[in-house]
Design a protein that fits this description.
The complex is a heterodimer of chains A (about 160) and B (about 250).
Chain A lengths: L2 H4 L5 H4 L7 H24 L12 H7 L4 E2 L2 E2 H19 L8 H29 L4 H23 L2
Antiparallel strand pairs in A: 1-2
Helix pairs in contact in A: 3-5, 3-7, 5-6, 6-7
Chain B lengths: L1 H35 L3 H4 L2 E2 L4 H5 L4 E3 L6 E7 L4 H9 L1 H9 L4 E7 L9 H13 L3 H10 L1 H4 L6 H11 L3 H9 L4 H13 L7 E4 L2 E2 L6 H13 L11 H4 L4 E2 L2
Parallel strand pairs in B: 2-7, 3-4
Antiparallel strand pairs in B: 1-6, 2-4, 3-5, 5-6
The chains are: A mainly alpha (about 160), B alpha/beta (about 250).
């Protein structure tokens, strides 16, 4: 059991043979839900439903106006909604005692988060090296997906 | 056994569900506020003095009858996504319904946000180069439509020449205009005019001398125009005579 999970007191379910809901996975669910809203906000802006984006600088506009704000014909933020939603749903299932130790949950979360981190790293590189502008919401999303990725590692060990 | 453990399992997850619920509520509230909570500034426009001396400093690019009862000034930046949305969603309706019915004269002024949009000044000059050939509004629609494709380029000049050709302008003349310093003074003075009128962001609209605090929807704009007309000529600022005072101001189709 990882240190994060050790911090969770054994639930009555675990005492009776059912696994406790891992705190790390709960955190993944909460962070993923936050990610859904960040991606949702950026998508609403990109689709023209928000006149102005709350950014503090012009970086968000610059990044969102660039051609890199699209991926396979859809706004990148829209892909973010899909990815964070998938992470949220699987994490929510993964906190249920029935699936707490399920390998598919652990591998699924780890795999999705790994793809997310890689894509986010690519976008961060584009912001720094190509567009030369920083979108704070995009940076927040990059931090979120990195945290989510780290938090999926204990579950992966546990499911072995 | 199952019937006993299930309720216990649920209770151990209750704080987690509570956190999820709080985050969900906060997130939805944030999005709803962003979508619907910023209408107030539109209803509280600020009166600005549209005196002739200010307007004579630089000519806008206008469409519509010179004696239209309502004048809408737009200060915009071709690289600004909000302006792009306004150009694709609201401006066509203004031109078709309000300008087409003779109610409105619509005047475009450059307000490139050069600190954050490195290509905006060049784009504004490009717009005026297209205007020189009577193709401003065609170029306006194309450059906004293509905004994602040139915004992050180091030098979008070649793209602008292509857009001008698509708009029906003579590409050679347009390119020589763009490669020169032509209209740099006009764009700079347009920016200064905007600043003197309190313009801080884009797009900013001034409807019969009333500067709007945020970008209105078409229906809000139409309502303001109808109210201004119903309120009589008293609502109209001297700007209504701008075209006559500025013979160089283009009345593009």
């Amino acid at each position: 059991m990882s240190r994060l999970e050790a911090a969770v007191p054994a639930s009555p379910g675990e005492a009776q043979g059912q696994p406790a809901a891992p705190v790390a996975r709960m955190a993944v669910a909460v962070l993923s839900l936050l990610g859904v809203f960040i991606a949702g906000y950026l998508t609403l802006y990109k689709l023209g439903y928000l006149g102005v984006i709350q950014c503090g600088s012009g970086g968000c506009e610059t990044v969102q106006a660039s051609k890199y704000a699209y991926f396979l014909g859809l706004p990148v933020a829209m892909w973010g909604i899909g990815a964070y939603s998938a992470l949220f749903v699987v994490a929510l299932l993964g906190v249920q005692p029935r699936w707490a130790n399920a390998r598919w949950v652990a591998v699924g979360l780890f795999g999705m988060a790994a793809v997310g981190v890689a894509f986010s790293a690519y976008l961060t590189y584009i912001e720094a090296a190509v567009i030369h502008a920083w979108c704070r919401w995009c940076v927040a999303s990059a931090v979120l997906i990195t945290l989510i990725f780290l938090l999926t590692i204990p579950g992966l060990r546990r499911a072995r | 056994m199952t019937r006993k453990t299930a309720p216990r399992g649920r209770s151990s997850l209750t704080p987690f569900y509570a956190v999820i619920g709080v985050v969900a509520l906060a997130g939805v509230a944030f999005l709803v506020f962003q979508l619907f909570g910023k209408e107030q500034p539109v209803t509280q426009p600020v009166e600005v003095v549209m005196d002739q001396a200010r307007l004579n400093r630089v000519q806008g690019i206008s469409v519509g009858r010179a004696d239209a009862p309502v004048v809408i000034y737009e200060f915009a930046d071709f690289q600004c996504p909000g302006c792009g949305q306004f150009a694709s969603l609201v401006a066509p309706l203004i031109k078709e319904r309000l300008v087409g019915s003779g109610k409105v004269r619509y005047v475009y002024y450059d307000f490139p946000l050069i600190q954050i949009h490195p290509n905006a000044f060049l784009a504004s000059r490009a717009g005026r180069c297209a205007n020189e050939q009577g193709k401003f509004w065609e170029f306006h629609d194309i450059i906004y439509g293509q905004q994602p494709n040139w915004s992050s380029e180091r030098d979008p000049s070649a793209q602008f020449v292509r857009y001008a050709a698509q708009a029906g302008a003579d590409a050679g003349k347009f390119e020589s205009c763009l490669r020169s310093d032509r209209f740099a003074r006009e764009v700079s003075e347009s920016m200064q005019l905007g600043q003197s009128l309190g313009v801080q962001g884009t797009p900013t609209l001034i409807v019969n001398g009333r500067r709007l605090g945020s970008t209105p929807s078409y229906s809000e704009l139409e309502r303001m125009v109808d109210e201004a007309i119903a309120g009589g000529a008293a609502a109209a600022p001297p700007a209504g005579d701008t075209a006559a005072a500025n013979p160089g101001e283009s009345a593009a189709p």
